[in-house]
Amino acid sequence: MSALQPSPPLQVQPVQWTLLLPKPRLDAARSINSKQQHSSRPQPILPPLPFLAALKMTDSYISTGNGDAFTPNGSSRMNGSSPSLPTTSNDAGTAPIIRKKLMGFVGFANLPNQVHRKSVRKGFQFTTMVVGESGLGKSTLINTLFNTTINPPKETLPPSAERPSTVAIESISADIEENGVRLRLNVVDTPGFGDFVNNDESWRPIVENIESRFDSYLEQESRVNRQKIADNRIHACLYFIQPTGHSLKPIDVECMRQLHTKVNLIPIIAKADTLTDEEVAEFKARILADIAYHNIHIFQAPTYENEDDEAIAEAEEIASKIPFAVVGSDKEVTTPDGRKVRGRAYPWGVVEVDNEDHCDFVKLRQMLVRTYMEELREYTNDVLYENWRTEKLLSMGVIQDSSVFKEINPAIRIQEERIMHEAKLAKMEAEMKMVFQQKVQEKEAKLKQSEEELYARHREMKEALEKQRLDLEDKKRRIENGRPLTPEKISTGRKKGFLRP
């Protein structure tokens, strides 16, 4: 084996800002080809330089399970290193420890774990509403869904008892825990719906209750201190349909039309064990036809771009079961083969609640609890509540400024502000001129009136002086002619003086 020739000293160029940008794939391929051509020469091991991290972090790579990376053209790069820099060979036994530490230090892949820890520590809250006529098994289905007695069965009123005249709203809260995850469950029941002779506007108390919860949340959002915001909005509404086998009744259509813009609507065929499989299929088709005809929006299982085929198939299977034909039972019965199951025993057999061949309860629970509970909460907050909030604020006269979230050229914005300022100044100047002219006119009117009064007084005084002048001239003439000024007055004066004691 020949002696190794000393390698030329490594010269490190100063870092330019352009080096922080990803290099084109052409340079990467040329660099790799040059390495393959000179693979006979040992590559110098670079010392840990600060700018290598910047070069490495900005280049694109595909990470593997052990931290190595591959470029899009298939060439391997250890831990996402730059293609233009020489890398150490695996045969030399020098593992890039510094780069592995850097990959671990970034750690943004740990964000889901952080969110998970925070969510488990904080707990979850979910509010569901059940709407339907009495006797359809609403309370039983809720207890079956969460496998605990949340809503106790109601006592049957005697015939002589007084019935309520309006639909009541009852809310029940329960804290349940499963595998360390706490859930604050709120169940809103609507006893009395559809139980009256006149059911006109029987949905109004339900709609008002949903809107009052939106109002409460909006009021909490508008506070100065928003540290404690209680979310009591309805996240899902289970609408129970009577198993008639025909179609939706007018009260069902109208109630769903009033609710579908304010809550996630999930139609459910109650007591589906009273119908055969063929009747259930036909009944579902009629219900979906009525919903489509009246433009009623019901909650659909969402699908995302990067989901696998299994998740997409699961979502399609759940969507195919809507409306869910369910059977509720919180009691265990024994099957003919000796199994203990939740279900209902009949003379002809046992209906199993958790058997997908018997009812759609499993798919309902899968959509409502196990798979799409967070989607129900997000859709309520991002779509339903936002639409209601927009309509509410617009009705109150609050108008959104169109320039708030718009990218505007600063020069154009300054020019517009200058024009607006000049228009404002021109308006103020016109108003000031108008006020000044009005005051000048009022002053001129007052001065003119004062001038007329002075002229009148001057005329009167002049006439009085002229009269006095004429009297004095007359008296002067009389005195010059030797005639008495007032003989009668003199004689009268003498007579009065003569008689005076």
UniProtKB/TrEMBL annotation:
Q: Name one Pfam family in it.
A: Septin
Q: Does the keyword GTP-binding apply?
A: yes
Recall the GO molecular function terms of this protein's record.
GTP binding
* Gene3D superfamilies, alphabetized: P-loop containing nucleotide triphosphate hydrolases (3.40.50.300)
Biased segments, Basic and acidic residues type? 466-481
CDD domains assigned: CDC_Septin
Family in the record: Belongs to the TRAFAC class TrmE-Era-EngA-EngB-Septin-like GTPase superfamily. Septin GTPase family.
Q: Which PANTHER family match?
A: SEPTIN
Name of the protein in its database record = Septin-type G domain-containing protein
Q: Which organism is it from?
A: Fibroporia radiculosa
